[in-house]
Each structure stands twice: as structure tokens, then as C-alpha cells.
Amino acid sequence: MNTILYDTYTIFWRELKRYKKSRSGVLIRLIQPVIWIIVIGNTFSGTEPLIQSVGFEGKYIEFMAPGVIILTAIFTSIFGGVNTLWDRRYGFMNKALSSPISRSAIALGKMSAISLIAALQASLIIGIALAIGVNFPNPIMIAPIMVIVILFSLGFSGISVMVAATAKSQETFWGMINFLGMPLFMLSPALFPLELLPDWLAVIAKLNPVTYTILLVRELMTGVSDGGIPILLSLGVLIAFVLVMMALASYVFTREVNKPF
Questions:
Q1: Which among 107, 231, 225, 89 has a CA at the least distance from the CA of 158?
Q2: pTM for the model
Q3: Residues 95-127: pLDDT tens digits?
Q4: Which of 110, 102, 55, 105 lies closest to 222, judged by CA?
Q5: What is the full DSSP assignment across 31-91?
Q6: String of DSSP letters for 115-173
Q7: pLDDT attached to residue 20
């Protein structure tokens, strides 16, 4: 167990050092969430009566801010697996596989680093939200929100690592990632409450782990519970999602990474 933990930490630290060198990439990944929270938040500000009709008292930008935080986590974590493709193409993965390091530790180390990076970028979005006037009744809730973002990103980074392990080219990887990322975000109460969605779309949204994570963050940020979903159920779905994705990512990575690239 100690060996696996040490191997995981080694890969985790390497990924963080790589992240430190890609500052331009950090800024690029922040552009889209910033546009969403500033432009879309103000564009849809006229819909406040709609969200207030289902019990949310506040500005629209305060309603959508949790969704943008999770949007940041989605795209940071789901794009993070591309490093696995580069490791395979440029030889690092072959060196790692020829060492006694655990294959599962490689996957878990990458996932852990990606989830922490996603949380760091989400914290920047929280700062931007506060700067443009989003009300945060209880700043102490920032800590549990960061924990939720890390957990959620751990699950989504597992998806990314699985796709990277099975993809045979960058084109395949990006195609699959783009197919998953934005649809999962849109099929959630990120922009509008579940109560305002058509019944069939609300049913699909309730099968989406993004939905429960956004509801958790929104309740912690605003103190308002929407969607009629208890906070314990949302937390349970999130934890189950993370555990399943970690197990699947470890299994798929171990099975696929030895195959020719």
C-alpha cells in the first residue's frame, strides 16, 4: 500500500510540475468560463422572474455562477487526459511501464493532479464571481465547495484518462471529449432550474451526475435548495460517481496502456 501511495504521489507531482509550465494553457481554459459568467450571466438577466417563480430569490448571475464553476471543473478535468496521449507518443509512458511502478498508480496520480488543478481554476472563477457582484452569504462555504469540486473533477478526470487510454489518436480523443463535455453541462440545471425544463429533459438531467454537483454547489453558495433533491442524495450520487469512475479508470488504463499506440 505504501508503495502504491508513493507511486501515485510521484506521478501526481510530475503532473503538477507540467501544469506549472503551461501558464498560457491555464489562461486559455479560463476564457470560456469567464465569458459565460460575465456575458451569458448578464444576457439572461431578464429571466430572473422565471427562476424566482420556482423559489430562487436573487439575481440570475447568482443562480448560474455555481454552474460556471462546475463548467470550469468539467473542461479542466476532461481535457486533462490529453497528457496521457503525449506521454505515450513521446516515450515517457514506455519508461514508466518498464519500471516497477503500479499501472493503477499512474492513472490515479494523473487523476489526482487533474482534479487539484481543476479546483484551483474553479477558485479563480469564484474570485471573478465575487468581483462582479455575486453575493456569497457565507464565505466559509468556499472550503466545502472546493472539496466538492475536487471530488467531481476526480470523477471526470477518470473519464478523460479512460478515453486517453483507449484512443489511438488525438483526433479520436478530442472528438470523444467534445461529444461528452458540453452536452453533459447543458443537460443539467446549470442555466435554468429543473422545474422549468420539459419533463423528458428533466428526467434525463436527473441521470446526469453534473446535475447533483451543481445543486450541491448552488445550495452551499446561496443557501437555496432547488430541484426538490435532498442534499444528502446529491452528495451520495457524487461520491458513487467518483468511486465508480476511479475504479473504471484504473481498470481500463491498466488493460489498455500496454497495447501498441
A1: 107
A2: 0.86
A3: 777 777 777 888 888 888 888 888 888 888 888
A4: 55
A5: HHHHHIIIIIHHHGGGGHHHHHHTT--S-HHHHHHHHHHHHHHHHHHHHTTHHHHHHHHSS
A6: HHHHHHHHHHHHHHHHHTT---S-GGGHHHHHHHHHHHHHHHHHHHHHHHHH-SSHHHH
A7: 67
Between the alpha carbon of residue 159 and those of residues 68, 178, 252, the distances in Å are: 20, 12, 10
With beta carbons less than 8 A apart as the criterion, state whether 54 and 189 touch.
no
Helix-then-strand count for the chain, H and E: 13, 0
Distance CA 65, CA 128 (A): 10
Nearest to 76 by CA among 171, 152, 179: 152
* CB contact at 8 A, 157 and 77: yes
CA contacts within 13 A on the Cβ side of 88: 21
Q: Fill in the amino acid letter for 27.
A: L
